[in-house]
Amino acid sequence: MKNKKLLITGGLGYIGSHLVEKLRHKNNVFVLDNLFTGSKLNQFPDVTTVVADVDNISDIFSGEIFDFIFHLGEYSRVEQSFSEPELIDRYNVRPFRGVIQFALSQGSKLVYAGSSTRYYNNDTGYNLSPYSLAKFQNIQTLMQYQNWYGLNATIVYFFNTYGGRELDYGRYATVIGKFKNLYLSRVDKFPVNGFGLQRRNFTHIDDAISGLLLAAEFGSGDGYNIGNNTSHSILDVCRYFDKQADVSGVIDVANRLDSNVELEKMRLLGWSSQIDLESHIKEWIIKHR
């Protein structure tokens, strides 16, 4: 992708900032981020960045015409959403139709990050949490706008992305980010929810970005799953760090035990994951001994 004008919401966040870094040299990139989980440390000096909520997207960029809009700037935590439903409404539900209308008015291609939780238990994962339900409803809305108005859009799904700049502390920390932080703190055991048997398709950020760009340029519609084809249990991850698991035995209702990744649509685009989680962790440990 080059010589394009791009808007990336959530561009100061984890996946968004890596996307900006990849695209900024050959494209005209704009970022919109409210710093909810993003950081000014992820800002690049040659990228136009606006710190504001997505609600104001049409007013902020009224004079701009974008080729692509990557809408990554939403609340994205499953278990935590039970105690923060108002944030789901504020960041995911209320702004979404405005984003769609803005893309339609410009003729931009909209690339939307759905939630991989939808694939839990035969596509009924939208029942898992307020977050999962909101993402499912947004996808249904987007698909109807495709049918009604010819909206040019692609929906992608990320599966447990890791690999640099992921949040490593606090209630929004990712598993790999948190474990890296704990490793550096020299703890003997890693705290684990449940019994550590839950499995995830951990996907390196470089693989995620390469898949995202392929789906953005050549995909259309729903179902572009960007995940490693190998799953790992949380106990496996502890073992890769050479740590024991301190299991809680308490299983959160939203903490699904398995992960189902159908990669056929991404394979048709020529994509496959290249980076293995265990190898990444082992290399990371060598650098941080």
Account of the 3D structure:
This protein has 289 residues and is an alpha/beta fold. The chain has a domain at 5-163 and 202-229 and 263-274: Rossmann fold. It has ten helices and 13 strands. The chain has helices spanning 14-23, 57-60, 85-93, 96-106, 130-149, 175-184, 205-218, 234-240, 264-268, 277-287, and strands spanning 5-9, 28-33, 48-51, 68-71, 109-113, 153-158, 161-162, 189-192, 199-200, 203-204, 221-226, 232-233, 244-247. A seven-stranded parallel beta sheet has the order 3-2-1-4-5-6-11, with helices on both faces. Helix 1 (14-23) crosses helix 7, helix 3 runs parallel beside helix 5 (130-149) and helix 4 packs parallel to helix 5. The longest helix has 20 residues, at 130-149. It is globular. 44% of the residues are buried. The mean pLDDT is 92.
